[in-house]
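Self-study notes.
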Amino acid sequence: MSKKLIIIITIVALFAIGLAVVGAQGNGNGGNGNGNRFGAGNGLNCDPQQPESCANDPQYNAYNYGGMGFVNAQDGTSWNGQQRGRMNRGAGVNGAGFYASLPPATVDALPQNVVDLMVSGWMDEQHAYAVYEGVISQFGDVNPFVNIQRAEAQHIAAWEFLFDRYGIAVPEVPTFDVPQFASVTEACQTGATAEVANFDLYDTMLEAFKDYPDLYQVALSLRNASEFNHLPAFQQCSG
């Protein structure tokens, strides 16, 4: 074998090795759209390439199932639109991608206890929206209330989407007793307390909705938005 042929073979081999390294880096650093979010050092206790291993990981679930209502409380960007859309999971700021990804209805009519929980969830979102509107009226367009109120509007729309799907009449919005606060900090403290209190309602929903995948997905999404986005924002602004 000539020296020239040996050099050519060596160059080709090194080029092939370089391509393999680049390909491995692409897969590890976001080649599948998950690398930067779920790669090494991200705090997950599971392998996102094997979703079944992440079933109980709250961070993973928050990203994958929390889309609608994930409005960044600090800068107002919308997970279900700008961010999830760029991750090929959303479809615009109105969350069309989320609705399109919902499982189909499994029954024509829901039992009354399930309907009552859906109405309770819708009413809770309406109450929160009214309280945040009161805070904004008191203190101006302050965050995180402006951005979280946007999320509450998305949550209300999600329930009403399900109401329409199952032929449930949308209730009239009652007049809520909206408190006055001494400061934004006090309002944030109240908001954080309310988010924690809502976990019981969401957990009750998840138990009751387990036979209705579309309802379950919405309830899980709302719970994740509450725990992983709204609660930390209120805790931060409450000091």
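Second protein, same conventions, sequence then structure:
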Amino acid sequence: MLDIWNERYSRDEFVYGREPNQFLKDNAHHIPIKGSVLCIAEGEGRNAVFLAGLGHEVIAMDMAKSGRDKALRLAKEQNVSIEYRVGNLNNFDFGTGEWDAVIAIFAHTPIELRQKIHGSLSTAIKPNGVFIMEVYSPDQLNYKTGGPKSLDLLFALEDVKREIEGLEFLHAQQTVRDITEGSLHTGLGAVTQIVARK
């Protein structure tokens, strides 16, 4: 799996584009000013760079070194600074009271890992901090415009809401929207969206 992502991100193009995810862009105002932000499964860095541009202190993490290299290049082009950690989410310590925001944009993980991440949010996020997530829902299998092909890697809203405890849902929706993010996310997509505050 790691080889697939390293190969994908080693291309010259930014396969998911250089611009931030639109849902994140629309909801970034929920993040406390100059907050400490963690972007998981951040890939080529478009969202981390956007948030750094808003004045946040951003740590990105992903398992693909080629993603880190492109993210740091993009940050340099945009004249912002991010920290990028290469590692596996299975072993990642989210800490206690560490983050003003945790961002998960198309961070598709197996069910067991997803539950572990969601279960750690109420401990990891500071008071008034937020969790912002957009992922493909199971309905995405009908659209074939990006995302995993396995049902186990797609997030149903009811499952996500059950797994996240100790946060207030400001927005929780399963919907279909037009997604244009590089060459690999193009067209109508079925998504699950969350904004939740501690």
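Instructor comment on the second fold: Strands lie at 36-40, 57-62, 83-86, 99-105, 125-136, 168-181, 185-197.
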